[in-house]
Write a structure and sequence with these properties.
By secondary structure, the chain is α+β, with helices and mostly antiparallel strands. It has helices spanning 7-29, 52-57; strands at 37-42, 61-66, 71-75, 79-85, 90-96, 100-105, 110-113, 116-118, 124-128, 132-133.
Length: 168
């Protein structure tokens, strides 16, 4: 078989670009309104940098929160550096975009999840399935308006209106 388009990796690249753009804006102008981020990343990623005591405490993954206090946010092409407070102990971190597992902004119910799939040998590969866009909770269905004169009227199907009648 010939070459194929690797949509999974293309989606990951686009979503990581979105994260880079959002963090760049925050580095330049700060977090707007009630926005804040939960970022889960792979602490064992070879390019991740964190204090030894943090990697010992979180050997597989760690979720950090960027909300009220963060410092020295530096957004690069391959990852970002930030200083966060861990129990009154400021610690610098470097998180490569490839290490990010989830990126969530709960203030607007937005989230991305990056998952890798195992190849036939059971080893994680760089080839990944498409990221999940975390679902929003279902919105409550609006109750239909009820007038006094249609109490016993049967429900009607939606009407289809042709837009041709509105064209000049």
């Amino acid at each position: 078989m010939g070459r194929s388009i690797d949509y999974g990796n293309l989606m990951h690249e686009a979503m990581r670009g979105l994260i880079r753009k959002v963090l760049s804006d925050v580095a330049e102008r700060g977090l707007p309104g009630s926005h804040h981020f939960f970022i889960t990343f792979d602490t064992s990623h070879p390019d991740a940098e964190l204090a030894d005591w943090l990697s010992d405490r979180y050997p597989g993954e760690m979720t950090v929160v960027m909300q009220h206090w963060y410092d020295k946010l530096d957004v690069g092409e391959d990852g970002f550096a930030v200083t966060l407070n861990f129990g009154d102990a400021p610690e610098p971190l470097y998180v490569p975009y490839d290490a990010i597992k989830t990126f969530v902004d709960p203030s607007v119910e937005f989230g991305l999840r990056f998952e890798t799939q195992d190849d036939e040998d059971g080893i994680d590969t760089a080839t990944s399935k498409s990221p999940d866009i975390l679902p929003r909770p279902p919105a409550a269905k609006p109750k239909p308006l009820k007038s006094d004169d249609d109490d016993d009227a049967p429900a009607k199907d939606a009407e289809i209106v042709s837009l041709d009648s509105f064209r000049k």
